[in-house]
Specification:
Length: 83
């Protein structure tokens, strides 16, 4: 029972970290800091616009792969991996 509780605590911690990163990238960089980021350009586009349109999508895809890799390690650690 103790292992299950620890497993879910670590799982929830990974989910929380993922949500915070996604929030910071999509809301923070795409909305709150857009004016400051627009002073820079990336591929001909203002950086704030790029984060609002593309950056949050890239961050989300990266987080999916990161979360998957971390969960695979967590599953192996607690021996609950799929066969």
């Amino acid at each position: 029972m103790e292992g299950e509780t620890t497993y879910w605590q670590e799982n929830l911690r990974l989910i929380f970290i993922s949500l915070v990163i996604w929030f910071v990238v999509s809301f923070g960089l795409g909305i709150l800091l857009v004016e400051q980021l627009n002073e820079f350009r990336l591929g001909g586009y203002k950086l704030g616009f790029w984060f609002a349109q593309q950056g949050s999508i890239y961050a989300f895809v990266g987080l999916v792969f990161w979360y998957s890799a971390k969960m695979n390690k967590l599953d192996k650690k607690y021996k609950v991996e799929e066969s």
